[in-house]
Specification:
With 574 residues, this protein is of the alpha/beta class. The protein is 25% helix and 19% strand. The protein contains 15 helices and 27 strands. The strands form 5 sheets. It has a 17-stranded mixed beta sheet, with helices on both faces. Helix 2 packs across helix 3. It starts with 8 loop residues before the first helix and ends with a helix. The relative contact order is 0.04. The model is unreliable at 36-44 and 158-171 (pLDDT under 50).
Length: 574
């Protein structure tokens, strides 16, 4: 079967994804016979398209709509998986599973398409969850072709003829249910839209140009049954009050639009489940009316006016509420809240009251992000009463950890930034029995030394130390961090003692700033280590250890790594 792919990498990759789900001899023979039939055509492109067709045919029924939905995105477009999963849910593609949220089910669908090599991963989080993805050009072509066959979309994509001179003009079908606009939204708004009265999904996908729209009235007048409206990145002057007439709307995306105000009629959207917007001057105090809301993103509010949300008892994610807004609500009513981000000024927040408000989420809260603005300090709180809390991010001034914070035992991810701690945080943090990821960033600790005791961090796998200008010494005693696999730091002035005892350390990310550092690395590259350049403005080295090394080889590899880092430190690579 590999021979039939004619050496085409994409065809071979797709074949692997196809066979990975069909393990019996009979199923493999079926794939082989189908390939023989399809490959009667000649040409390399035909070979690739053969594998694409077989991959699509082999998809289970619940994955085919998700695959067809990829046809809405332009070529080479990097897709946010957070948004993609929500779009699948509100399009009705995700089936409700017992004891499992629809978002978790949608993530399973995404991973199945990735395993079949129909979606490529662009970026993952520290805990290996996919954050961004991408679709190959040929796969995109197949998705568009199949989507048109099934009337999933029409050939209705409006583009800027100056940016895309080869694009065909827009064609509309009364059967069209989904449309995506890549740019020139004004042109799209000027077209007659009464021929598509059953449109359910309208997406604007910004490809880097600057586009503005002065009127959105046509959306409400023409698309009465719209369920998904995403205008992220489109410059919007105002949202008309008649948007409240879109009573079927489930998803409203207005992030990065420059919009400062929302009309009070937004409270009439009783079926709205996701509102995603940022940088508003103020959020209208009507959210309490939208009782079906599940995901509310309102980050970076300019003003701190009261906002009632404790009637929205189905709320699962609340991101961007201010400290003052939060304490005015009865958090005990938010029994479904799993993820909470609180930000803004907090100097007037009473600590006991705030701590109690978090404690009332003990049955549901899994992720908490506290971000204090200006010089205000994060209120102290005891989180030990939240047994399900596994992820905690704190950005802002703190007092001593021992006196103010009691971390839950099940905490697995912790990020500290701008905390300005004067005492070494390691003696307290190393006692967390289930901590897997620790990220200490700029300003989290102001001291020059850190010490990890022999039994510290029994399960830690990822340690990140970024922008520590004053830290000169990290001492890791033998027996500490026995499961550490990934280390990232960006200051060669920091000397790390005990590195050669971290026998499971397999990845190191460090800054790259000179050709000389590369030359030094090549002395160890051929033995136990490999090197990958990190893309982006800051750049860097991603050093990976070979797999399957013996204990003796692992120790030798770590000694080589320690020598390399010491030489870089002496040469002052900063």
């Amino acid at each position: 079967m590999v021979d039939k792919c004619n050496g085409l990498p994409l065809a071979i990759v797709l074949l692997g994804g196809l066979l990975s789900k069909n393990m019996s001899h009979i199923e493999w023979k079926k794939v082989h016979d189908n390939m023989s039939a399809y490959l009667a055509k000649e040409g390399q492109i035909a070979g690739v398209m053969t594998m694409l067709n077989l991959s699509y045919i082999d998809l289970p029924s619940y994955l085919k709509p998700c695959f067809l939905h990829l046809s809405l995105f332009p070529e080479d477009y990097v897709i946010s998986t957070r948004k993609l999963l929500l779009l699948w849910i509100y399009e009705g593609f995700v089936l409700q599973q017992d004891q499992q949220s629809m978002k978790d089910t949608a993530e399973i669908y995404l991973n199945e398409l990735i395993n079949r090599n129909l979606i490529q991963v662009v970026r993952t989080s520290v805990n290996a969850r996919v954050m961004e993805c991408w679709v190959h050009d040929f796969i995109q072509e197949l998705a568009i072709e199949k989507a048109k066959e099934h009337n999933f979309i029409g050939t209705n994509i409006v583009v800027d003829p100056h940016l895309f001179p080869t694009s065909s003009p827009s064609l509309f079908s009364s059967k069209s249910r989904r449309q995506s606009i890549y740019s020139d939204f004004e042109r799209y708004a000027s077209i007659e839209h009464y021929s598509t009265p059953y449109l359910r999904s309208l997406l604007y996908l910004n490809l880097g140009g600057i586009c503005r729209i002065s009127q959105l009235d046509f959306i409400t007048k023409c698309f009465k049954v719209l369920r998904v409206l995403d205008l992220e990145g489109l410059g919007i002057e105002n949202v008309p009050s008649i948007i409240g007439e879109l009573i079927h709307l489930r998803y409203l995306g207005l992030r990065h639009t420059g919009l400062k105000m929302l009309p009070l009629s937004i409270g009439n959207l009783r079926n709205l489940q996701t509102l995603d917007i940022n940088n508003l001057k103020r959020v209208p105090d009507v959210i309490w009316k939208i009782i079906n809301m599940r995901y509310l993103y309102i980050e970076e509010q300019e003003e701190d006016d009261p906002l009632k949300i404790d009637t929205v008892q189905n709320l699962q994610i609340l991101s961007g509420i201010t400290f003052n807004q939060w304490i005015r609500n009865n958090s005990s009513k938010l029994t479904c809240l799993e993820k909470l981000k609180i930000e803004g000024r907090c100097e007037l927040v009473e600590e006991v009251e705030f701590s109690n408000s978090i404690a009332k989420l003990h049955s549901s809260l899994k992720s908490l992000y506290l971000k204090a603005s200006d010089e205000s300090s994060i209120p102290s709180l005891a989180m030990s009463s939240c047994p399900h809390l596994c992820k905690l991010d704190i950005k802002g001034r703190m007092q001593k950890l021992t006196e103010t914070f009691k971390f839950p035992r099940n905490l697995s991810q912790l990020t500290l930034e701008a905390c300005r701690l004067e005492c070494d945080p390691m003696p307290n943090l190393e006692k967390l029995p289930n901590l897997l990821t620790l990220r200490l960033r700029a300003g989290s600790y102001l001291g020059k030394e850190m010490h990890v005791s022999a039994d510290g961090f029994p399960r830690l796998q990822i340690l990140q130390l970024l922008r520590f200008k004053e830290l000169v010494w990290l001492n890791i005693l033998k027996g500490a961090m026995p499961w550490l696999m990934q280390l990232e730091f960006d200051n060669f002035k920091t000397e790390i003692f005990g590195l050669n005892e971290l026998l499971n350390l397999a990845e190191v990310k460090i800054p790259f700033s000179s050709l000389l550092a590369m030359i030094l690395f090549h002395k160890i590259e051929d033995s136990f280590w490999g090197l990958t350049r990190i893309a982006g403005a800051e750049g860097g080295m991603h050093i990976c250890r070979q797999k399957g090394l013996t204990l003796a080889s692992s120790k030798q590899a770590l000694e080589q790594l320690a020598d390399f880092l010491e030489q870089c430190s002496r040469l002052n690579f900063v």
